[in-house]
Amino acid sequence: MHCPFCRHSDSRVVDSRTSDDGASIRRRRQCPQCNRRFTTLETASLSVVKRSGVTEPFSRAKVVSGVRKACQGRPVSEDDLALLAQRVEEAVRATGSAELDAYEIGLTILGPLRELDEVAYLRFASVYQAFDSLDDFEAAINLLRMEHAQALAASDDESAPGSTESIG
User: Fold this and answer.
1) Is residue 168 very low, low, confident or very high in pLDDT (cuts 50, 70, 90)?
2) Where are the zinc fingers (unnamed) (predicted)?
3) Is residue 15 classed as helix, strand or coil in its secondary structure?
């Protein structure tokens, strides 16, 4: 680690602490040449392999820009998009892999996007799941309808008389 003050090629770690809930390490360093102290923040790198074979660092901004297009004209705020990108990054890091295909990241986006806005989900899914016809859209819509019906039935079962809920 080069000293940012005198550019000496070495430094000594004085203190290390985890930050961002363990996602990164904050290190306090001291230069042996000028004795000045500075802080570094270390995170594990996460790389994305694009279809062309090019590898680049993971970027939340790219997730947001891709999803923003699908959310155009929908009631989705920038904060919603930022939270979605954070959830996607956490899910991708949780795989434990340092390198993922761009396609896998696109598929990882689908779950949180579906919870955020179903129309945007269908738009995004049509690209990442390569919908070829109206039948593909119809199948995706039918799946959403079936899941809505199951969720409604489950909530009706919970509120039905004689359910196991206790009043107290």
Assistant:
1) very low
2) 3-34
3) strand
